[in-house]
Specification:
Elements lengths: L1 E2 L2 H21 L6 E7 L3 H17 L2 E7 L5 H13 L5 E4 L9 H7 L11 H8 L8 H12 L8 E5 L6 H9 L8 E5 L6 H5 L4 E4 L17 E4 L3 E4 L7 E4 L4 H4 L5 E2 L6 H19 L3
Parallel strand pairs: 1-11, 2-3, 2-4, 5-6, 5-7, 7-8, 8-11
Antiparallel strand pairs: 9-10
Helix pairs in contact: 1-10, 6-7, 6-10
């Protein structure tokens, strides 16, 4: 078993982006500027956005954090989105999810200008990605592809089973894995919580991507020997014995599955760090594509 070290790989990516930004500065060019909009005080969101801001500082990006109160109206948030769309100093921005229940997240994400949509959630970017056109790829699937490529894991002709069908991870990674790319050309099956005989499918997988959101769901008897296991799950599970009061769990029962896998991602330290690194890469691409 070999560990797919997302933390180390993400650091390599950050160094590459940092070097690119340094060259931009030497040429007197404006460096990339990423903005993040956070509504409310969700603990996980605050942690995640804080990590994004620190990463921007590390690679030399400009960053802006726009923090709005929990009771911000949908109309007020849409006004903020419009302002960011119109601001030439902002290359890309994200609206951190989840949003408060009184705000229609789909309506807000549709209002984000596609050329600034570095999360890759807008239908324009999703459609362009599916057609293999230039587009912002959602950061988590993008990170999975990057991990597979950098570890030179063979994917062509392999059976890839994706468990989870969300528009953020499951659907895009299933499309990317089937495309003509270095980490692609796989035969892809998409399964989900309603799939019958799910265990029979997972046992067939050469590459198994778990994005279900159920802690420790995948057990050892659900994996064939030598499979590549990518764990996208990240759930806070209460734990009174832990200083933080919780532990982070993935969808994979790591200790049980790892001995059977050829490669496996840990949680934390696997796909999570890659997500932030690919957001930085998308922001750099936004600066290059929308050069002014």
């Amino acid at each position: 078993m070999k560990l797919l070290d997302g933390k180390a790989t993400a650091q390599h990516l950050k160094e590459e982006v940092k070097a690119h930004v340094s060259e931009m500065k030497q040429r007197g060019e404006r460096v990339p500027h990423l903005a993040a909009v956070l509504v409310g005080n969700d603990g996980a969101s605050l942690t995640y956005v804080g990590s994004k801001v620190r990463s921007c500082e590390y690679v030399g990006f400009e960053s802006t954090l726009i923090q709005l109160p929990e009771d911000t109206t949908e109309a007020a948030l849409l006004e903020q989105v419009d302002a960011l769309n119109a601001d030439p100093a902002i290359d890309g921005y994200i609206v951190q999810l989840p949003l408060p229940k009184h705000i229609d997240a789909e309506k807000v994400l549709l209002a984000v200008a596609p050329h600034k949509d570095v999360d890759g959630f807008h239908p324009t970017n999703f459609g362009r990605m599916a057609l293999e056109l230039e587009a912002f790829i959602p950061a988590t699937p993008y990170g999975i592809i990057e991990l597979l490529e950098r570890y030179e894991i063979p994917t062509s002709g392999k059976h890839c089973v994706v468990v989870g069908r969300s528009a953020i991870v499951g659907r895009p990674i299933s499309i990317l894995m089937s495309q003509k790319r270095t980490a692609g050309n796989a035969t892809v099956t998409v399964a989900h919580s309603r799939t019958e005989n799910l265990e029979a499918l997972t046992r067939q997988a050469d590459i198994l991507i778990m994005a279900l959101g159920i802690p420790d769901y995948l057990k050892s008897d659900m994996v064939k020997p030598g499979a590549v296991v990518i764990d996208v799950g990240i759930t806070r599970v209460p734990d009174a014995n832990h200083p933080k009061g919780y532990v982070i769990k993935g969808d994979v029962d790591f200790d049980a599955v790892a001995p059977k896998a050829s490669y496996i991602t840990p949680v934390p330290g696997g796909v999570g760090p890659m997500t932030i690194a690919m957001l930085l890469k998308n922001t750099l691409l936004a600066r290059m594509w929308n050069a002014n």
